[in-house]
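Following up on my earlier message about zinc ion. Here are the inputs again, as you asked, copied directly from the submission form:
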Amino acid sequence: MTTAIDDLPVFSAIKPTEVEGNLRTLLDANRAELERLLTANSASWDALIVPLEEMQHRLSRTWSPVGHMNGVVNSDELRAAYNACLPLLSAWNTDLAQNQRLYQAYETVLKNEGARLTAGQRKLVENALRDFRLAGVALPPDKKQRYKALVEQLATLQSKFDENVLDATNAWSRHITDTAEIEGLPAPIIERARVAAQAKQLEGWLFTLDAPNYQAVLMHAVNETLRREFYHGWVTRASEEDGNGGRWDNSALMDQILAVRDEVASVVGYPNYAEYSLATKMASSVAEVRAFLEQLAAKSRAVAHQEFAELTRFAGRELNAWDVGFYAEKLKRERFDLSEEALRPYFPLPRVLNGMFCVAEKLYGVQIVERTGVDSYHPDVQFYDILDADGSRRGSFFVDLYARGKKRGGAWMDECVGRKRLGGATSLPVAYLVCNFMPPVGSQPSLLTHSEVVTMFHEFGHGLHHMLTRVDYPSIAGINGVAWDAVELPSQFMENFAWRAEVIPLISAHVETGAPLPEAELQRLLGTRTFQAGMQTVRQLEFALFDLRIHSEFEAAAGSKIMQTLSEVRSQVSVIKPPAFNRFAHSFQHIFSGGYAAGYYSYKWAEVLAADAFSAFEEGGIFNSAVSSRFLTAILEQGGSRDAMEAFVEFRGRKPQIEPLLKQLGLAA
Ligand SMILES: [Zn+2]
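Thanks, got it. Here's what our run produced:
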């Protein structure tokens, strides 16, 4: 049944053939209304900015379900429609951002009403003025035109990058009939592969290349050849090495993406894309970010080397990149007498969700209840409402948690509906929470590893940021308008709860017996948190430095030097030596097609904020209501309505410090 009372998207009514036409109609209407507003010459908050917020809200409402479905139930028809829309959207955004009259109207609002506006309203106007400048509003017409063309081109290139990764991933599979080859693999992974083989009338097992399969093989397959094959498959996706004859090779696209970004930056007067990207972030310059990353590298590299030497000793052989996960898992099992896989039965997904909701209820006084009968695009999807203490609805979310074909890998939260209260009906925030966990097999629910549980908490943290906002203006509500390097604060903050002895009993119970995780295993699990934290840290630093350097050192004449930079960064910080065929960058969607370009450092940056924020909870008790309500009101509810540093200082009483993170990772001296 389809419900319309909340104005949720009606996914089942979205027809690829109508997507482009509907968007064109909406954009035409927006353009006409914008012209009316500017002609009326009424540059005031109420007469100009409120209708513009409405307009953008309407557009996001229309586009969000299309973009979402393209990511999670991709099809040739939808992909074509989606791609046809990207240049239209990009053109609209640029037209808006480069509109000189609109820019002046915002300046007038600030000049005439600045003193009367609330701090949030003023922030909205100041953000808009900054973005006008970043889009080259004051440039001569030919340069403005060039900027617009570049941004459109970039949207198309990035989309193509994603398609190549998806297609190359889908094209890979491994059919196995010899039991010896799958030795060590967890039973649910084997069962899933058996079902996949059966569906194709094949003997034995058929493995696709999704994250659960890839991780399971790299961690558990005793057969080194199989590990190497999966590793090769994964790290060569969408490259000239992937065995598809270059059909989905991203090499040229990556060069083009960097070249276009570099030109975008230079057209509006920045020395490179990284500096341009930092103009909207909490960090102030490439030099500051680089110093931050190198400081962390200095703190973690020696530890990472010790860990790797220890692992090599343990394995009693030289380790290839595809051996590290396997021996690390073995060492971890030996040291902690604990296997991630063996704990799966203690983390059935329904129990994890309930317990996680319970944590949010304890922290923020909300209540989370499932609602059935909501229109959806796939039977796996569930829907929940978040209610305030008085029973009124605060927000809602879709969850779509299982891996399947035609669904983008990874985990993420995205906006379905943004919060808006501009007079007239209030629209409450709705989120999508997406993961790629192993689907239920038969009557057994999906069973998670603890690290998947941590992923779930992470995305839910983003979700709470989006859904608990009290901000009324869509462009600064929830995660909107939040500096990108502060956006991972609520998500990484939330991860901490999945690592607490007070919380684990809430999120775990044996799938068959309902028994709690035994105390000894609980303690061992908690002990694993800092296991190889040095190696994990340098890995993140490798990604972050690579990203920062390719976006700050690009020179048109010299080309992008992607592989060269990657290998320089690796020799600077990494401890694992990857094989020559490694083309990891070719599927690095975060920075080539996602929003993390010149922003991958944000994870570490925000991890400092998150660990420091959580240390306040550790001081006062993790469910201390004074601390949690301060976090709620100073950070979660504020969205982008205030400066990230200011909000942090209000919550913590001082600026962020790096020590709590080092302590959390076991890297403190
Ligand atoms: Zn995140």
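One observation from looking it over: Residues 458, 462, 488, 491 surround zinc ion (CB under 6 Å). Hope that helps, and feel free to reply on this thread.
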